[in-house]
Amino acid sequence: LLILGIETSCDETAAAITKNGREIIANVVASQIESHKRFGGVVPEIASRHHVEQITIVIEAALKQANVTMSEIDAIAVTEGPGLVGALLIGVNAAKALAFAHQKPLVPVHHIAGHIYANRLVTELQFPLLALVVSGGHTELVYMKEHGHFEVIGETRDDAAGEAYDKVARVLNMPYPGGPHIDRLAHEGSPVIDLPRPWLEGSYDFSFSGLKSAVINTVHNAEQRGEAIAPEDLAASFQASVVDVLVKKTVDAVAEYGVKQVLVAGGVAANKGLRSALEEAFSGLDVELVIPPLSFCTDNAAMIAAAGSVMFEKGVRADLSLNAIPGLEIEIFN
Ligand code: ATP
Ligand code: MG
Ligand code: FE
After folding, report:
1. Phi and psi torsions of 292, nearest 5°
2. Which residue in 80, 90, 198, 308 has the fewest CB atoms around it within 10 Å?
3. Is there a cis peptide before residue 82, judged by omega within 30 degrees of 0?
4. Which Pfam families does the entry link to (predicted)?
């Protein structure tokens, strides 16, 4: 079963082909980070223009890498949302054009389902499972009792974890996207600065905007008093707070839901501090912890093909009226 996956929800134009949903035979990602860097974040209009320029090139490169033609592809999976509408539309329209021209089934994929299914490129999923989704726009604990079933048991009430990383990085004058820079700096410092840990007792929800403000205030107060503050200690303290909350809530949810596997998904899953803290927390527990390699954590199309493959087998189809849905919800019970 060959699935062509297409992803254009934000600032990566990506196409990939998977075989039987688990084996990658092509994976092409054209990143636009360099174009957005000087604006300190993703500029939607620039993103759309790059997607238009890159989409055909990226799809052709994927077919060439896999050494297959469109006639051998069984279905086309595409991210329908959530994301930037103008960015999503480029992928959706490319997928529809290919589906029409080659008479192939079209499978709509939720971007976060894609991040979760990146784990299936590493190992077979075992249900029930819990996915910790930590990305640029989402922080969620998702319970899955079977393929295609997504139940959000907790989510952020304000900023996403990646968003908090990027905003804190800006305050520390680091380039976009700030997550990897903070991560690197954190390992050079110590978590000696006292920052809040938003527990939101009794719920699996998250909140990172208060923590972000506390970091900003710490920097401003030090500036006003003319005191020096070690950026590596601030980075380490911020990271310690984020990681503590993410790990504790995940461990608690795993105990309550009695799952067999814990998956980690999204760009912040690339965080070294989070990865090692999760490994330590789950080392003594009877649950399998799965964390994808770094390149599958951030946006790519292999994850869309992986999720699309499962959805295709479940009979999920879209027709040529498929539209991009910027605020698409993941919650599906079936
Ligand atoms: P979403 O998936 O929610 O739509 P997105 O696609 O923009 O958002 P991803 O590509 O999953 O997000 O992840 C990008 C985010 O991951 C950025 O906020 C980036 O700073 C963060 N990130 C990447 N690497 C690291 C790291 N090592 N430590 C912390 N954050 C990181
Ligand atoms: Mg991105
Ligand atoms: Fe993403």
Report:
1. -70, 155
2. 198
3. yes
4. TsaD
| Cα 299 to averaged position of ligand 2 atoms, centre (Å) | 6
- pLDDT confidence tier of residue 202, bands split at 50, 70 and 90: confident
Say which amino acid occupies 273.
G
User: Whose alpha carbon is nearest atom 3 of ligand 1?
Assistant: 137
Confidence of residue 333 (pLDDT cuts 50, 70, 90): low
Instruction: Decide: 120 and 261 in contact? Cβ < 8 Å.
Output: no
Q: Per the annotation, does 115 bind a ligand?
A: yes
Closest residue to atom 7 of ligand 1, CA basis: 136
Pocket (CB within 6 angstroms of ligand 1)? 9-10, 83, 111, 115, 135-138, 162, 165-166, 177-180, 183, 266-268, 270-271, 298-299
ipTM score assigned to the predicted complex = 0.98
Work out the number of other CB atoms within 10 angstroms of the CB of residue 276. 11
Q: Helices H, strands E: what count in the chain?
A: 11, 10
Distance separating alpha carbons of residues 72 and 26, to the nearest angstrom: 14
Which ligand is in closest contact with the Cα of 295?
A: 1
What letters, b where the CB count within 10 A reaches 16 and e where it falls short, cover 46-83?
Answer: ebbbbbbebbeebbebbbebbebeeeebebbbbbbbbb
* Pairing assessment for the beta strands 288-290 and 261-265 based on DSSP bridges: parallel
